[in-house]
Amino acid sequence: MGQRMVREAGALLAQARSVVVLTGAGVSAESGVPTFRDALTGLWRSFDAQRLATPEAFRDDPALVWGWYEWRRATVRQARPNAGHLAVAAIEARVPSGVVVTQNVDDLHERAGSVAPIHLHGSLFAPRCSACAHPAPVPDEVAEEPGDGRRVVPPRCARCAGLVRPGVVWFGEALPAMALEAAVEAASTCDLLVTVGTSGLVYPAAEIPQVAARSGATVMQVNPEQTPLDADADVNLRGPAAQVLPALVQ
Ligand code: BV8
Ligand code: ZN
């Protein structure tokens, strides 16, 4: 990716009045948080994320699914926001209207200073009762990090004794309506949408760049690899977020 391209992209960003930054698991990769498909090591290696991140998997084996999310939460707790997250927070702070929309369930945008990222797929830090939806406390950091594949029996709800589940959106579950509406509203009124580190495979989140493009916004993609979003992008910056994003905001 040439210096000229980065300079031109930086100029586009500098003159944008309202910017939406849409992030996927790739923005946390350089913090050591595996992307969705890489989050399956150890016992989980034999599983397909799309099968494990489902209500059916939790119904059939709650301890396996809860253990996977405990392991992922432990990984996020040990991770630190990277230069990409910090640059996203800088973009948000600098433009007149900056909105961060994330598909990620980690809290690295918040820890990098992003004020109120829109979480389309929920959060590892918002467990709730699977029966009555009562919010449940986030379990303390376990002394020994749950190893790969360790089953962990989920806690019980203080109100109804139902099984506590992760506060994430599983495949086959509807996204939180308010979050999706806010994200679509921001994408349809922004003049620049920067999509970072998402494979553009998961719907309806993958439609957000198209909403921006159809509304006349410029779409800029940051990803080391090609994705289906290449077609919607006016600018394709082929590189890792922690390198490319800081170059855009300097
Ligand atoms: C729903 C939370 C309906 C859980 C996740 C059409 C319309 C609507 C739905 C569908 C549809 N077609 C199919 C569906 C069903 C399904 C779907 O999209 N399936 C796909 C696989 C085809 N969608 C759903 O089920 C959604 N629900 O539609 O419900 C409904 C409506 C009403 C009532 C009832 C039901 C729910 C989808 C949400 C699933 N939950 N996460 C958890 O995290 O455990 S999605 C999960 O996968 C992640 O959050 C992530 O968003 C997504 C993809 O994972 P990854 O590929 O790892 O991550 P990412 O996409 O970000 O890719 C990594 C990228 O980073 C790569 O491109 C890589 O090149 C890049 N990268 C790597 N390193 C770097 C980097 N980039 C920059 N810098 C780097 N250093
Ligand atoms: Zn309950």
Description:
The chain has helices spanning 3-15, 26-29, 49-52, 55-60, 62-78, 83-94, 108-111, 177-189, 208-214, 241-249, and strands spanning 18-23, 97-102, 118-119, 122-129, 164-168, 192-196, 218-222, 235-237. Helices cover 36% and strands 16% of the residues. It is elongated, with a radius of gyration of 18 Å. By secondary structure, the protein is α/β, with parallel strands linked by helices. The longest helix is centred in the N-terminal third of the chain and has 17 residues, at 62-78. It has two domains: 1-33 and 80-124 and 174-250, Rossmann fold (3-Layer(aba) Sandwich), CATH 3.40.50; 37-78 and 128-165, SIR2/SIRT2 'Small Domain', CATH 3.30.1600.10. 44% of the residues are buried. Ligand BV8 binds at residues 24-26, 29-30, 35-37, 50, 53, 103, 105, 121, 168-174, 196-199, 201-204, 222-225, 227, 240-241. It catalyses: N(6)-succinyl-L-lysyl-[protein] + NAD(+) + H2O = 2''-O-succinyl-ADP-D-ribose + nicotinamide + L-lysyl-[protein]; N(6)-acetyl-L-lysyl-[protein] + NAD(+) + H2O = 2''-O-acetyl-ADP-D-ribose + nicotinamide + L-lysyl-[protein]. This is NAD-dependent protein deacylase.
CATH class of the largest domain: Alpha Beta
Beta content: 15-25%
- CATH 2nd-level architecture of the largest domain: 3-Layer(aba) Sandwich
| Number of individual domains | 2
Enzyme class: transferase
Subcellular location: Cytoplasm
Protein name: NAD-dependent protein deacylase
Keywords: Cytoplasm, Metal-binding, NAD, Transferase, Zinc
For this entry, give a set of tags:
Rossmann fold; binds zinc ion; 2 domains; two-stranded antiparallel ribbon; 16% strand; binds ligand BV8; elongated; 250 residues; SIR2/SIRT2 'Small Domain'; 6-stranded parallel beta sheet; 10 helices; alpha/beta
